[in-house]
Amino acid sequence: MTNHKQPHFILVPLMAQGHMIPMVDLGLLLAGRGVLVSVMTTPVNASRFRSTIERARLACLPIHFVELRFPSAEVGLPDGFENIDVVARMEYAHDFFRATRLLQQQVEDYIRERSPLPNCIISDVCHPWMRNVARNFGIPRLTFSVISCFTQICEYNIRHYKVLDSLEDQKAPFAVPGLAERIEVTKAQVPGFWVGWEEMAKEVYEAEFAADGIVLNTFEAMEDVHIKSYAKAMGKKVWSLGPYSLCNKTIAPMAARGNKASIDAAQCLSWLDPKEPRSVVYVSFGSLTHMKPSQLREIGLGLEASGHPFVLVIKKTETNAEVKEWLLEFEEKIGSRGLVIKGWAPQVMILSHPAAGGFMTHCGWNSTLEGISAGVPMITWPHFADQFLNEKMAVDVLEVAVSLGVKEPTNWGVDDVPFVVPRDEVERAVRRLMDDGVEGRARRGRARKLGEKAKEAMEEGGSSHANMTHLIEHYTH
Ligand code: UDP
Fold first, then answer.
1. Residue nearest ligand 1's atom 3 by CA
2. CA nearest 211: which of 236, 231, 228?
3. Ligand 1 atom 10 nearest Cα
4. In terms of domains, do 201 and 286 share one?
5. Is 413 among the domain residues?
6. Are 262 and 240 within one domain?
7. pLDDT at position 194 over 80
8. C-alpha 366 – ligand 1 centre gap (Å)
9. What is the CA(286)–ligand 1 centre distance, in A?
């Protein structure tokens, strides 16, 4: 299948929806430019993207999956535990990452059989072992990171200046050094996911330093300064190629993105279509957060009290008997003013609908950037990992969001999100975001302009489009 003149890139995502979805979008963008793209992943993960890849195949895009057997038995994980959203608990997470390392042999076997060898590897930053693969075959390797460049440079500076070493108090705010703007965070809010994973964090940083370049889902008009400082700090090229989600231009690919949606696209659109432009608040907390029933109820009641129409996404795994019982009564009460999606939502389709007017988000970087790309202002409720810094980016740097004021990170995989935000705070934040006063209008205007710039970046002549041209040329010749 390899055409000797066609560039061939290998993409190796981490198996988590917040990593797989943007990497598949990036693969589609590369394939749209004529690059042969091999996305290497395991069967459970490939099956979630089957319809996306099938659509690409019908459009003659040269992208395909290379399926790798997930070594669950070798590490003692149950069958099917191939994605972080299934792993879900911290006690399995170490085994999961141990299993990902064991994929190295299969990746190498595939590469060994290619002639000519692939031109470039783009591998998730959480696969530091891909460094060895690239070295063994002499193939250039770019790391793929799913956080904003602002968050990257903040984390870099905090490490570089050893800020955390001298801090005792987990809750005392400190200013991130080396930034043009004054950004305050607490020790508890950074470095998020890496607490208890210090050894892996070290390996990840070292592998990123050793890479040939860094690929980021961002765009120059939004954070040129951060891109330049991060490139300088790392001493290598930082390729800003996003927002990748904008490669999904029509309803069908938007609705099929990630997992199979729990609501039919037509049903969702028939709810959204009659709503006033920019009137609906979309509420979703990504693929990994887990709320307790009491917190879900408070969110629902706060949305109801706000008086604005809303879409509330509740995960299947959060929908226990208690939640189901409450929803029976709640859905009846709110009628057509609210839509509750139980399971996976077609997020990008909803956000890009003209009725979308606000987004309450957990600040995962994909979601944040999808809100930015749609030109929709946000309410931020970070939970863990990079999310607190992404909140700072949206609220303080870009000024397109209002904060719900949550300061304490949650313990992913250990505790579900307890009741931390009462209904009146949810109501107040929604009213503030949707307000038609001077502040609300100015925020909406900034969000709309930023959304336009995001789209421009991805069009021909835009910065991300041009960067992708250079990247392909750079690794093909
Ligand atoms: N997503 C979606 N529907 C859902 C939940 C999530 O399409 O019901 C997508 C969302 O659009 C984003 C990704 O899943 O692309 C979640 O990534 P993010 O970085 O926002 O958060 P994470 O899930 O990694 O915490």
1. 345
2. 236
3. 367
4. no
5. yes
6. no
7. no
8. 6
9. 4
Compute, in angstroms, the gap from residue 18 CA to the centroid of ligand 1: 6
The DSSP result for 110-143, as a single string, is HHHT-SSPPSEEEEETT-TTHHHHHHHHT--EEE
pTM for the predicted model, two decimal places: 0.96
CA angle in degrees (0–180, nearest 5) for 31-36-38: 100
Do residue 299 and residue 364 come from a single domain? Answer: yes
Q: Please, what is the average pLDDT of the chain?
A: 94
Ligand 1: residues with CB < 6 A are 17-18, 21, 257-258, 284, 286-288, 313, 344-345, 347-348, 364-367, 370
Verify that 125 and 242 share a domain, yes or no. yes
Q: Are residues 284 and 320 in the same domain?
A: yes
Residues 211 and 71 in one domain: yes
By the 8 A CB rule, do 427 and 305 touch? yes
| Lookup: tokens for 254 | 């938007």
Domain that holds residue 392: 254-434
- pLDDT value of position 19: 97
Supply the DSSP symbol for 77.
P
Calculate the alpha carbon distances from 196 to 76, 191, 257, 416 in Å.
21, 11, 32, 18
What's the pLDDT at 167? 86
The domain spanning residue 419 has which CATH number? Answer: 3.40.50.2000
In a domain, 199, yes or no: yes
Which residue's CA lies nearest to atom 11 of ligand 1?
Answer: 347
Please name the amino acid found at residue 90. Answer: M
- State mean pLDDT over 32-56: 96
In a domain, residue 318? The reply is yes
- Taking only the tens place, the pLDDT of each residue in 109-139 is 999 999 999 999 999 999 999 999 999 999 9
Residue 2: is its pLDDT beyond 60?
Answer: no
Number of separate domains in the chain: 2
Residue nearest to atom 7 of ligand 1 (CA): 347
User: Is there a domain that residue 258 lies in?
Assistant: yes
329 and 268, same structural domain? yes
Neighbours of 253 (CB within 10 A): 19
Question: Does residue 261 share a domain with residue 403?
Answer: yes
Task: Decide: 366 and 245 in contact? Cβ < 8 Å.
Answer: yes
In the three-class reduction of DSSP (H, G, I as helix; E, B as strand; rest coil), residue 264 is classed as: coil
